[in-house]
Amino acid sequence: MTAVKKETQMKSAISGLAAHDSRKLEKIFNLCREDEKKMTLLIRAFCEAYLIDNKQRPLKLRPLQEAIVVKTLTYPNGDADKHRKLAILAPRGSGKSFALSVAVCIYMFFNRFRDLIFILAPTEDQASLIFNYCYRHFADNAFLDGLVKNYRFHNKPNITMKGGTVLRRAPLAPSNQGQAIRGQHPTFCIVDESPLIDDKLFIDNVEPAIVSNKAPFINLGTPKSKDNHMWRYLYDDRYEDTFERMVFTWRDAVNPGRAYSAPYTDDDMAEKMREWGEDSIYWKTEYECQFVESVANIFNPELVKECLSSSLSFQEPGNYPNCVVGVDIGKSVNSTVISVWSTAKTDTENVATLIYLEEIGPKTGGHDIPYQRKRIMAISKEYGAGKLIIDATGMGGAIEQDLRVECVEEQIQFIPFVFTGGPKGSKTQIYRDYVSYIQQKLVKIPHPDNLEPQHAKLVNKWVREHIDLEYTMDAANKTEKIAAPSGKHDDYCDSSAIALHASLQMLPASATFASVSLKQTGTNRRTGGRNPVFATARRSHNINKRGLRGI
User: Which letter does DSSP use for residue 17 in this model?
Assistant: First the structure.
């Protein structure tokens, strides 16, 4: 019998009249769980019968996704007395979270009675991702939608089947101390972005819940530092017999297999590697799926030095093309740094050139706010700046408001930038692209040999700060940050990073400065705002913005 015919038979068995016999379906599912080939047929048949992609076509999983779903739903070595424990690494944008949503949907379809499924993640938004995909799977198909008793998006969000099976989502963060999972006994547990969860929280709350029920336990994510449970599950010999290990890279993601397309191509990845550099921590972690040391340098020192140009010097005041001023306001013992950049287009790229640099330290105004404001505006006007972008993180409102007013008067676009931490924070995003600028040689600064001694000193500081700047993930994986080593500074780095962001505009503005706008209808009683609506095959479900994330 051909594979196509077997798949057709499987589709017939789980659709039509057979779909109404839940006990029979449960038997079919349990038989397939003993054999990965049979489970593959079941997954393909189910997707063809019930699920659709974003273009309303029958869903076809890519090989990477299908491998994840098959491993998630089958017993280890076909032994029904054992329960699957998986540690999965997959690259950014590969569809790994979507794959697990398909696994959850299939599991709930075949196990409608009294199961408890948990989706955990470091934040509410991250926990919502797989949950919202599951919601769409059910709501977009009339038959699946009819199996659901209730969709709940507030106060312990859940999807409850008419047979009693419940899907829950919850963040697992230091702020809530793992309360959602504590004392629970899930029959199926998924931890998304597992490498970002605090070790102590994980050990104290997740592992006991899993051990008590011997539940299938799936850990998923993109790697960060080595000092956490996910690294141990994957590479510590003590866990070799406990966890099955699946490690994918971008090379696995470019294969569409039976699917209509892949998330990216070989050419896309070649360009991405060119942008970031093969040695970049972002390339290594997000696409090669390699763990990095807890502390690593952000910039390649040799590439930083290659920014120096012997043909450049600081420029006298005047009107310069596409001029942007970036300001890092000194706080505590730090200096205020003002960097002025002019951007010109070459044959293929926009190249930013540092045309002036100034540091306001204790001997040149210190933290005298009026003096700083005066110098910032004077430099912006002298060089004909079109944009003034300022690090507004923790900055008092007075200077920001005064600068905003003066910029309006001078027709300068004023942009207050707030640095936020963590892997999804604005600082991580902006430095990810800053690494790309340097890697592609889009940043040019005058060589110190061309400058007067006081200016040469500033450029040397610029170089030294960039070489010293570190990526740090603490031992408990609680925080990810980009900062200078202890006792050193990153004022020149931050001033340049935000200015280059505004100059080269490689990062979409919505990612840092604005929220994504949504078409909305209805009223949110709690916030007074408007709620997005999804129209489904049978119902319209009003959900808030948090419920929408990740769809």
Answer: G
pTM summary value: 0.70
- φ/ψ of 149, rounded to 5, equals -80, -40
Enter the tokens of residue 420. Answer: 């936020």
Long-range interactions of 504-513: CB distance < 8 A, separation 24+: 504/343, 504/350, 504/352, 504/433, 504/437, 504/442, 506/433, 506/436, 506/437, 507/429, 507/430, 507/433, 511/426, 511/429, 512/417, 512/426, 512/429, 512/430, 513/415, 513/417
Residues in contact with 118: Cβ distance below 8 Å, sequence separation at least 6, in sequence order: 168, 169, 170, 180, 181, 184, 186, 188, 189, 190, 209
Q: What is the dihedral of CA 365, 366, 367, 368, to 10 degrees?
A: -30
DSSP designation for 385: -
Give me the chain's average pLDDT, please: 82
- Give the relative orientation of helices 96-110 and 22-32 as an angle to the nearest 10 degrees: 130
Strand, coil or helix: 330: coil
Q: What percent of the chain has pLDDT over 90?
A: 50
pLDDT at residue 355 is higher than 90: yes
Output the pLDDT for position 533. 28
324: left (phi over 0), alpha (psi -120 to 50) or beta: beta
pLDDT tens-digit readout, 210-227:
765 566 899 999 987 787
Give the whole-angstrom CA distance, residue 345 versus residue 393: 31
| b/e code 155-169 from CB counts within 10 Å (16+ = b) | eebbbebeeebbbbb
Query: CB-based contacts of 500: which residues, under 8 Å, 6+ apart?
Result: 326, 341, 352, 434, 437, 443
Q: Which amino acid is at 109?
A: F
Specify the amino acid at residue 45: A
Three-state SS string across 123-164, please?
A: CHHHHHHHHHHHHHHHHCCHHHHHCEEEEECCCCCEEEECCC
Domain ranges of the chain: 3-268+541-548, 295-512
Residues facing 533 on adjacent strands: 542
The CATH code of the domain at 3-268+541-548 is 3.40.50.300
Is 254 within 8 Å of 91 (Cβ atoms)?
Answer: no
Q: Are strands 85-89 and 217-221 parallel, antiparallel or unpaired?
A: parallel
CATH architecture, domain defined by 295-512: 2-Layer Sandwich (3.30)
Cα–Cα distance between 68 and 91 in angstroms, integer?
A: 13
